[in-house]
Each structure stands twice: as structure tokens, then as C-alpha cells.
Amino acid sequence: MGEVRMDLYLKIQRWRYHRGNQEVKKRILDEFCETHGYHRFDNPKLVKLMNDLYANEISLLFNFFYPCIKLIDKVRIQSRIKKKYDKPKTPYQRLMASSCLTLDQKKIQKKLKLVFRLVNVQ
């Protein structure tokens, strides 16, 4: 088997947030190890397959099915911070609601969404 190399994850640290580095490292390790396990990948063919998996399938999974919450407003009232969040939406829903896409791009995205709905039903 092998170990997960920790030196790869240390490059992601934020230099002013020394307490947040462990949280960032743990989050990245948890996400990676949840899908791939605690193995060392020495074979370049496996690395190429994993990169393809992340570029195609996993990114589509996160963009179409995992909603996220956006922070709209943050107000400080004495020592407390009151935060106001938007309704949970997937990145796909946010993209379709924005004015960044042309009509042709929106048609393609809607066709892709229909395919995912069919897959989700089955």
C-alpha cells in the first residue's frame, strides 16, 4: 500500500493563518481519501486516470448536484458578527441565473441538465 504524501498538502497553507493550516490540510485529505483511499499512487497511468476522473465526472457531480450557500451580508454588532446567507443553489443554477452565458450556451447547458435528471431518476 503506502502513505499519502503530506508534503503535497503543505503547499496550500496560508501564511498569515497558522491555525487554519491544519483545517485546510485535513479537509483536502478527507476529500481525497474519501474517494481514493489511503494509498500511494506511483503508477503514472493511475495518476492520469485520476486526473481525468476529477476533470470530467467529479466536477460535474459537484456543479450539478451539490448545493452551496453564498454569504450575502456580514454585519458586526459589538462583539458579534451577524451573517446573512443566500438560499442554497448548485453552481449550475447560479450560472444559469447570471447574465454571463449566451442563449446558445444556455441551450447546451439545459440539454445537459436533462440528461442528468434522467440519470438521477433511475
Summarize the structure.
This protein is mainly alpha-helical and 122 residues long. The protein has helices spanning 20-36, 44-65, 91-97, 103-121, and strands at residues 71-77, 80-85.
The quaternary structure here is single chain
Specify the helix fraction band: 40-55%
Which shape, going by the Cα principal axes? flat
- Extract low-pLDDT stretches: 6-12
How far from one another are the termini?
36 Å
Number of strands: 2
Strand content: 5-15%
Biggest sheet features: 2 strands, antiparallel
Query: How are the strands of the largest sheet arranged?
Result: 1-2
Structural class of the secondary structure composition? mainly alpha
H-E string: HHEEHH
Please report the number of helical segments: 4
Rg (C-alpha, Å): 19 Å
Give the topology:
Elements: H1 20-36, H2 44-65, E1 71-77, E2 80-85, H3 91-97, H4 103-121
Antiparallel strand pairs: 1-2
Structural features, described:
The protein contains 4 helices and 2 strands. By secondary structure, it is mainly alpha-helical. It has a domain at 62-122. It has a two-stranded antiparallel sheet with strand order 1-2. The longest helix has 22 residues, at 44-65.
